[in-house]
Hints:
- The protein has helices at residues 48-56, 98-108, 113-126, 142-154, 172-189, 200-206, 224-229, 234-241, 274-277, and strands at residues 5-15, 21-32, 37-41, 63-68, 71-72, 83-86, 160-164, 192-197, 209-214, 217-222, 244-254, 257-262, 265-270, 283-288, 293-296, 303-311, 315-322, 325-332, 346-351, 356-360.
- Helix 2 (98-108) packs across helix 3 (113-126), helix 2 (98-108) runs parallel beside helix 4 and helix 3 (113-126) packs across helix 4 (142-154).
- It is 25% helix and 37% strand.
- It contains nine helices and 20 strands.
- A hairpin with a 2-residue loop joins strand 11 and strand 12.
- With 361 residues, the chain is α+β, with helices and mostly antiparallel strands.
- The strands form four sheets. The protein has a six-stranded mixed β-sheet, sandwiched between helices. Strands 13-12-11-14-20 form a five-stranded antiparallel β-sheet. Strands 15-19-16-17-18 form a five-stranded antiparallel β-sheet, with no helix packed on it.
Amino acid sequence: MHEYLDLSNLTKIFKLNRQNQIVALDQFNLTVKKGEFVTLLGPSGCGKTTALRIIAGFESPTSGEVYIDNQNVANLTPDKRNTTMVFQNYALFPHLTVYENIAYGLRVRKKSVDVVRNDVAMACQVVNMVGLEKRYPGDLSGGQQQRVALARSLVLKPKMILFDEPLSNLDLKLRLQTRTEIKRVQQMLGITVLYVTHDQSEALSMSDRVIVMNHGKVVQTGMPEEIYNNPVNTFVADFIGSANFISAVADEIEGERITVRVGGRIFIVKQRRAAEEFKEGNEVYLSIKPEAVHISKEPTDFIGIVEVKFFLGAHTEYKIEFEGSFINVYQSNFLGGTKIYKPGDRVYLKFNHDLFRVYKK
């Protein structure tokens, strides 16, 4: 028995010419349960969209298997896989109304007039587009167009919806609104979703599970909280949380406790499998999340110098020189009572060691 979606040893090689080729997917494995919202997260060119296109049937794998609902779909055309895809550019017909765009797939499947009318009406209700059925895409906002694209997928009652960076063309406010709408609809209908993005906030906020990819391979899989709090390496730590990496030396290791030295400073980090992964004297990176550093009004042993500041409303981002390195620090501007520091200011720093991680160099 396979999971609802099961990709096994999937490899995709694009041949550029006789001498050169690109390995887009390299022995890629993925399972998705029925009703699960799973996100493929990674930088541009890591193979996310290639995996999505192979599942949809728009690309053929070089090797490997694709099972959907226990059926091997390798030889099935896209229209026979009962999956739908929501694209980055919406792909709406500009000369058709909202109603006609949503109804298009049903009419291709030769559904009756009554079925088309009832199913389109239901889809419009689900995505909050009631009353806009006679408008054309050019008369809609970006968020409304994306909801029409979602309704066009929903109306076909697919086994799975595939999203290819659907919010990247929207401004920040519309992105937040539309991702809430997508998650609401997914939970309400219990749809299986595979979602592709390079935006960590989308992945963390919407997903039941996140698959971090790089160079065509899975780097880490887990719930959003696990991925964020326990990244397996420096790539994930930097991509997910914009971590600071400071060169350090492992001084002492005991069980899940590792003491590292940064210049003349000592930091104690609790970390799973510390004794298995590190030895005394190892050169390591100490990973410090920006939110693990607090600028204190009270004197501490740790002093930094503000290099750059970015005021962003709810919080201020600082780049601070500390022990010969530069670290990014996020400071909440709660109630407007927090002091805003300027470049050149000397500041006291407090650290939350629970958010520290140590990685091999």
